[in-house]
Amino acid sequence: MTRFTTLLIFLLLAGLSCGRKNECTSVSLTKSLPTAATLSETWLVDVGAPGQRQPLLEGWSGDERWNGQDTFVWGIGSASTLVVHRYGNSGVRLRFRCAPAPLSGVPHQTVNARINGISLPPVRLSAGFAVYELAIPAGAMRLGANVIEWRYASWGAPPNSPDTRPLAVAWDWIEFVEKGTTPRKQPTVAEGDAIFLPPRTGIVMTVPVRPGNVFVADRVDIVGQTRAMEHASVMVELIWDGGVSSARFDIHPGSGGVRVPISVKRPGTMDVRLLAPAAPAGGDQAAGWRIVGARLIQDGACR
Length: 303
What we know:
Blueprint: H1 3-21, E1 26-28, H2 29-32, E2 37-38, E3 44-45, E4 60-66, E5 70-76, E6 79-86, E7 92-100, E8 109-115, E9 118-119, E10 123-125, E11 130-136, E12 144-152, E13 167-177, E14 189-191, E15 194-197, E16 201-209, E17 213-217, E18 219-223, H3 226-229, E19 234-240, E20 245-251, E21 258-261, E22 268-276, E23 288-292, E24 295-298
Antiparallel strand pairs: 1-24, 2-16, 3-13, 4-5, 5-13, 6-12, 7-11, 7-13, 8-9, 8-10, 8-12, 14-15, 15-23, 16-22, 17-21, 17-24, 18-23, 19-20, 19-22
């Protein structure tokens, strides 16, 4: 083999190596849509019923039945928290049915609800199960996940009972009532290289991610009555490192798209949440938003 041939082979291999290093790798969210989970809007949490444990976070006991009939769960300790998904932008009514624990020396139980850290007026509970209602002002609940914390004035073990749990309140159900709005479902679908999101919809998909990745979306188009919806935007949440790190941002129609770097240090997975708000007043309820070209790319190697 001549010196010239050896040099030529070396240059070819170096070129191929560089080509592989700078190769554009892209993860299309449209292709990942079949694996996406729906973040359904929360209208009712039937506490204690089968399949209703997922919204309950901390401060809850196990599922039980009151006198062998109605399902319920005890809120235990100083507070109970749950997560709900909401997509409206107006005030709602928070209704709930519950009963205070029969505690010695506690004639009345008081419950204080906090929505994303915002306190609502305290509610004084009567003995036995009853229905109560609170007004949640517009702006208190954000698009997507919201944390509700129920803080109790008193808790403890019931007198003359073998139950030693720190009982506070027995919860039957919790519901949201929004004037002029009823629960409705419209599918999220892929349309070519775009994802169509109807109003009041959220989805989450898990995709592979590695150092140097960038989240890219080319644009957001409005489907339906553009005049009423041109100021509404789609929200994107990116969650990586097991929820330790995240990014939350809006994509506005006509904004020209976004590029958001992902600061991971090693290969892994990332949750991508796409959240669509309620259609503005006067908007077409069958309309929605089309997210075009949503994908993950390798920074410096792709456009």
